[in-house]
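User: Mind token order:
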Amino acid sequence: MTASRNHIYIGVAVGLAAIGVGVFLSRKTIYKHFDYKTNLLLMTLDPKFRKKIKKFLTKASKQGMDLRVISANRDCKEQNRLYAQGRTLPGKKVTNAICGKSSHNYRKAVDIVEFKNGKALWKNPNWNKIGLLGEKEGLEWGGRWKSIVDKPHFQDLGGKKISTLYAAYKRTGKLAA
């Protein structure tokens, strides 16, 4: 007995529908284990810094915290737009750094947040625990800053100062660490 073309199409359609239903029913589990945004943002980072962040995220996961990267490398346009927020644009101030004065511009910073049940925990009682965990990996935590407390922010400039990087940027026009 040979299968007709219609039977093959129906079989393929049923198979694809079954896969779709399976993905739909397990979407929370899939999303929890595959955070594509974090993975894409990690790829924009300096390789040595990326390695530290991955280790930090893995250790947090082992402690039951689902940390995700929400911001990483920024170009000048994005950095200056964030700087304008709360100044010339609506919203609250989120940075004191113009382009070239943020470690995000040098692929050496991330902003992270913990997620529970698919929602970001901005008012999180775990911030100090998260900050300490990042510091144990050699990261500088923005939660300790005085000028603007930035709990989601972690950076590592590799022993360089932002003023040195900024001076090089002003001289060359290139954002290189």
